[in-house]
Amino acid sequence: MSKVLIIGDSCVDEYIYCTTNRFCPDAPVPVLKPESYVCTEGMAGNVADNLRALGVDADLISNANQIKKTRYVDDRTNHMFIRIDEGEDDIFPVAKKTLENINWGQYDAIIISDYCKGFLTEDEISYISNQHPITFLDTKKTIGNWASNINFIKINEVESDHNRIFLEENEDTFFDKVISTLGSKGARYKDELFPVDKVDVRDTSGAGDTFMAGLVYAYIEHIHSNFDEQIKSSIQFANKCSTQVVQKKGTAKVKFKDL
Predict the structure, then answer these.
(1) pTM of whole model > 0.85?
(2) Could you tell me if residue 138 is inside a domain?
(3) Is the dihedral of CA 102, 105, 106, 109 positive or negative?
(4) Does residue 89 register a pLDDT over 90?
(5) 240 in a domain, yes or no?
(6) CATH number of the domain to which 209 belongs
(7) How far apart (Å, rounded) are the C-alpha atoms in residues 253 and 255?
(8) What does the alpha-carbon distance between residue 252 and residue 42 come to, in Å, rounded to a whole number?
(9) Which pLDDT score is estimated for 51?
(10) Domain of residue 214, residue span
């Protein structure tokens, strides 16, 4: 069994599914009646859960302080009325001693899931990337030279546009590292588009985390003699994973048998 370490910010994703059939008399808003509650691990915790669903032994180092994201959602249409975030201002950074005491050699790969909530700094990400030969990064930070030793960097379409100038100016370093997820258009790597099947999208929450889990699983499980083919086939598998979960409600976990 493969073993992976995930380091990064985590949260609790709470979904309160409601019914509504009338508007508030004193404000133009619907009156919600909670019917059911679902709580799942989010962000780095969601990456870990999806890796476990794929049969990987996943360890997680994350914030002890709890971030909570509460969504009030229409049970029938899955329309989100409101999201309330708590705890983001109380995150303590990872302790230097925690990173120094990690037995890096026991892991097949390291995933840095950086939602930029304060758990990891650029220097710490750089330090982590120097400790293991296979590192993956998903970050909300502006990419800089501190990420030059990362093997693969997953960013979404908005983040790709935000980092476009830097990546173009540093193409020699980052061209074969960056994987851009493009939602319903699939993913892009080294100017090659990897499309996805058209499906009925119900919820995109956590789809990027699932993509990362599928990417790393496939990369370490299916070794190719050709490096380029290895990462490309891993992207195709990651696309399948994320396509599966967006058809479900909430922060869903991939089902390996249905892939």
Answers:
(1) yes
(2) yes
(3) positive
(4) no
(5) yes
(6) 3.40.1190.20
(7) 7
(8) 10
(9) 98
(10) 3-11+42-66+90-258
